[in-house]
Amino acid sequence: MSKLTPVLSAHWDEADSFTIEAYTRHGGYTASKKALAMDPDAVIQLVKDSGLRGRGGAGFPTGMKWGFIPQGDNKDHYLVVNADESEPGTCKDMPLLLANPHVLVEGCIIACHAIRAERAFIYIRGEVTHVARRMNAAIADAYKAGHLGNGIDITLHIGAGAYICGEETALLDSLEGFRGQPRLRPPFPAIAGLYARPTVVNNVESISSVPAIINNGAEWYQSMGTEKSKGATLYSLSGHVNNPGQFEAPLGITLREILELAGGVRTGHKLKFWTPGGSSTPLFTDAHLDIPLDYEGVAAAGSMLGTKALQIFDETTCIVRAVLRWTEFYKHESCGKCTPCREGTWWLVQILRDLENGTGTEADLEKLLDLCDNIMGRSFCALGDGATSPITSSIKYFHDEYIAHVTNGACPFDPVKSTLFAGAVN
Amino acid sequence: MTLDRDLMQTIIARYPRSRSAIMPLLHYVQSVSGYVTNEGIETISEILGIETAEVSAVATFYTQYKRKPVGEYHVGVCTNTLCAVMGGDAIFSALKDHLGIENDGVTADGKVSLEHIECNAACDYAPVVMANWEFYDNQSVESAKSLVDGARAGNPPAPTRGPNKLVTYKEASAVLAGLDDGLAREGLQAGAPTLLGLKLSKEGK
């Protein structure tokens, strides 16, 4: 029996999978019809019972989040879908929307009904023109077919290149027409979110998982996954592997199993380090191949499941170069609101540049860790925390390689050997 | 080119509160002028009833809003860690040499501009190059040079996962303003990596 469980991806191999015709052909918009006939609280209960947890990184139970929206408060409620997918390594939501935007539209209808919202916003990152086209067309077709416009509306909002807008409160500020900077919580979005109204912010994959749960039931969803991490999810494998791609599997599958399916690490090479869920999740090594990739398993091993973005790097890759580049990313994307993150990421880059080019010292490693200690947990949002993850974890596992840069006075790696076009040539 | 204020009002009408329209309006200005002009900022400030400084504050926060003209074909090379390691650094360096421009530069003929970009959510297709924010997957130094040479000659190759023909920067900006260009049905629904897990499961693996 296959270890894979395609649900979201079940029909992606049909050339017209993104159209309303294809979606309807496979039972699309029957779940929303069913849900709209249910009491909203019953929908929330069903999603709670399914065990569905947020697929954007944090893993918060989706039904519980919906349940936080106050009822009978005579205020507008909003659903906001976070489609700002920008965490380095993360590449699941954009192919999902390219191949089947209607499942998100239908998920929005169900979620709006459940939380008694009349309007959903889909905030999609700006650097994906064709995904924006497909999403826009799907919404338009859903209006024409009468699925939208009868009490539930969807507005597509397209971003303009800012990683920070994937942080839910920065996203809300951006959607209100401001610079995307995080808000202090509380109040949480469930109480004062978009336009200070009760708001649910969910990831694309979380909302897209809902139609199948409505149609197949909570028990069906519970039958997949592990004790506390229920259901199936998209694992995105990239980097130095023979066959990168998307693997929809029950939570708890291991990297060893996924690598076997993908034909292994690049032929002639071996695994050196990897991220379980994007660059903000502490690195793993070849010692972590059998960790169950669910929320608890990855956390117990000292990292986070995050977005299940499995970026694989083989032994040709310089750890210092990799970590420096991620750190430059965090420095560039820091919104500047909080001093520890804004100033701290700048200093991290200076020190790592010295280390990479061989002009650093052993004392710089202590300085890096000290800086990380002063960034971690000291800002409004988790961007700064994420910036420390690759640094602290790489020093833990590859301390000697940092030192080799210091003693060599230069980087001992040849970057050509890491490239795709270098192929399997050693 | 002048801004169509009626069209701008239809963009504002999408939102419960007008200020929320500032981002699509800035994309719209880029679709008309190729970048965010002072006139564009003034017009947005006027129709939203907010200060020009507030519009500028937003326009300068987001990297996709350009305060000077970019090329007809704006090329971004992903140099975040995974793409960089897989060849993005080599591609970016080769394109700078090939075009004779630096990061954020534009060729003298105004056809191509170049910047290094952050992760574009296509890591299973690394190394990735974007042109007018359309996907060019699994690029090499040679294929990236062909892309920019084609763009300069007025016939760029089609995106890997996108419409049959690469649209211009202004045309792409209109899509990002939420306007329909009728091309949603063109192009692949998914590339091979996207389908790999599904294919393996059908083979019983």
Describe it:
The complex is a heterodimer of chains A (about 425) and B (about 200). In chain A, a hairpin with an 8-residue loop joins strand 7 and strand 8. Chain A is built from 18 helices and nine strands. In chain A, strands 6-5-9-7-8 form a five-stranded mixed beta sheet, covered by helices on one side. Chain A has a four-stranded parallel beta sheet with strand order 3-2-1-4, sandwiched between helices. In chain A, about 60% of the residues are buried. In chain A, helix 5 packs across helix 7 and helix 15 runs antiparallel to helix 16. Chain A folds into three domains: about 200 residues, 3-Layer(aba) Sandwich (Rossmann fold); about 80 residues, Roll (Ubiquitin-like (UB roll)); about 100 residues, de novo design (two linked rop proteins). With about 425 residues, chain A is of the alpha/beta class. Chain B has eight helices and five strands, in the order H-H-H-H-E-H-E-E-E-E-H-H-H. The longest helix of chain B has 19 residues. Chain B folds into two domains: about 55 residues; about 100 residues, Glutaredoxin (3-Layer(aba) Sandwich). With about 200 residues, chain B is α+β, with helices and mostly antiparallel strands. The termini of chain B are far apart. In chain B, strands 2-3-1-4-5 form a five-stranded mixed beta sheet. Chain B is globular. At the A-B interface, helix 5, helix 7, strand 3, strand 5 and strand 6 of A face helix 2, helix 5, helix 7 and helix 8 of B.
Summarize the structure.
The complex is a heterodimer of chains A (426) and B (205). Chain A is of the alpha/beta class and 426 residues long.
How are the SSEs ordered, and which strands pair?
The complex is a heterodimer of chains A (426) and B (205).
Chain A: H1 20-25, H2 30-36, H3 40-50, H4 62-67, E1 78-83, H5 93-99, H6 101-115, E2 119-124, H7 129-144, E3 153-158, H8 168-175, H9 189-192, E4 199-203, H10 204-208, H11 210-216, H12 218-222, E5 232-239, E6 245-250, H13 255-261, E7 271-275, E8 284-285, H14 295-300, E9 309-314, H15 319-333, H16 339-356, H17 362-375, H18 383-408
Parallel strand pairs in A: 1-2, 1-4, 2-3, 5-9
Antiparallel strand pairs in A: 5-6, 7-8, 7-9
Helix pairs in contact in A: 2-6, 2-11, 3-6, 5-6, 5-7, 15-16, 15-18, 16-17, 16-18, 17-18
Chain B: H1 5-12, H2 22-33, H3 38-48, H4 52-59, E1 73-78, H5 81-99, E2 105-106, E3 112-117, E4 129-131, E5 134-136, H6 141-153, H7 169-176, H8 192-202
Parallel strand pairs in B: 1-3
Antiparallel strand pairs in B: 1-4, 2-3, 4-5
